[in-house]
Structure formats: C-alpha cells, structure tokens
Design a protein that fits this description.
This protein is α/β, with parallel strands linked by helices. The protein has six helices and seven strands. A seven-stranded mixed sheet has the order 3-2-1-4-5-7-6, sandwiched between helices. Helix 5 links the parallel strand 4 and strand 5. Helix 1 runs parallel beside helix 2 and helix 5 packs parallel to helix 6. It is globular, with a radius of gyration of 16 Å. The termini are far apart.
C-alpha cells in the first residue's frame, strides 16, 4: 500500500464530508487499483465503482472487495481488467465515468503515453480525474504533465484541502479535466 493511495482515499472521504465533492450515485473508475483502497472508499461513499488493473492483479483485488465491502454499503464495486493503451471495455465508457481516480499511476516515462491514451478514452468534458502520487522522479512527472496539457486542464490540489491527518510532503495530488474540442466550429 503506497502512501498516495491512503492520501487519495482519505481525501475523497474528507471532501465528501465537507461537501466539496459528491460521489453518491456517481460512476467512478479507479486505474491501477492495486489493493483497491481508494475505490473501496468511493464505494462506501456511495459511488458505483469499477476498479481496474492488470490481469495478474485482479484476484487479490476481487478478494479485497469481497472482504471489505459487505453489509450496508451505499455504493457498489466491481473489478475489470484494463491494460493502459488498450481499448477500454464498453462498461468502462458507456456511459463515461463521472470520476477517474488513481494513485501512483505516474511512475515511468514508458507508461505515460499509454496512461494518457487511457485517460482520454475514459473521459469526457464532464469527467473529473483525480491522481495522487508520491514524488519520486521529477522527470517522469514533468513528462506526464507536458503530454497531459495537450488534452487536459490540470490543477494541483493544495494540501490544505486534504484530510488534515493524512497529508504528506512526499505526495502530490492533481485534478485533470478534458479540454473542450477546439476544432468544433459553430454553424
């Protein structure tokens, strides 16, 4: 479990409690879910969550959902295979998610192109992407940001907006929203 996954999950909880974010009834896709903490928290907050990861990680992810999401859960969670860069399954994009979340998904320059292709496929102009990550390699983050600016408006979430007990100088959180298609012309 990476620090950024905990920070992201507690941020979602804190933002909902403060009325800054509404997750109840929203479709959320978690990328690179790992053990699924942030996605499970989103489900507990009322979202319909699809947790995604590579095929070899799905068994543990399914087990964690079964072990932790039972009883009176306001939302729901399912697991779906997703390899970045591949075309997403229809249930991921029909309809497009309200939110795409991910922690520690910006980790190598080689993965940036596939990650961004997947983010573009999963998002519309009404989709909010929230990514948290540990600050390890400035070059990788710079590569991601530079490439992401072509398709997204990007903002950094100030730590004052995070859960007060779950802040870390080693973690950064970003919000991305897809740009409007600038090639559309009015008649």
């Amino acid at each position: 479990m990476w620090d950024s996954g905990i920070v992201l999950g507690k941020f979602l909880e804190h933002a909902v409690e403060k009325g800054l974010l509404v997750l109840q009834g929203k479709k959320v896709v978690e990328l690179g879910a790992g053990c699924g903490l942030a996605g499970c928290i989103a489900a507990l907050l009322g979202s319909q969550v699809i947790l995604t990861d590579m095929p070899d990680r799905l068994r543990l992810l399914k087990k964690n959902i079964e072990d932790n999401l039972y009883g009176d859960v306001r939302g729901c969670a399912t697991v779906n295979e997703l390899t970045w860069g591949d075309r997403p399954d229809p249930e991921l994009v029909e309809p497009l998610p309200d939110f795409v979340i991910g922690s520690d998904v910006i980790y190598s320059e080689e993965a940036v192109t596939d990650l961004l292709e997947t983010l573009v496929d999963l998002s519309g102009t009404e989709t909010t992407i929230i990514l948290a990550g540990e600050l390890r390699n400035d070059a990788v983050l710079e590569c991601f940001m530079e490439a992401a600016m072509e398709d997204f408006v990007i903002g950094r979430v100030d730590q004052s907006c995070w859960h007060p007990d779950y802040r870390s100088p080693r973690v950064a959180m970003y919000v991305l929203v897809k740009k409007l298609d600038s090639t559309v012309t009015a008649c």
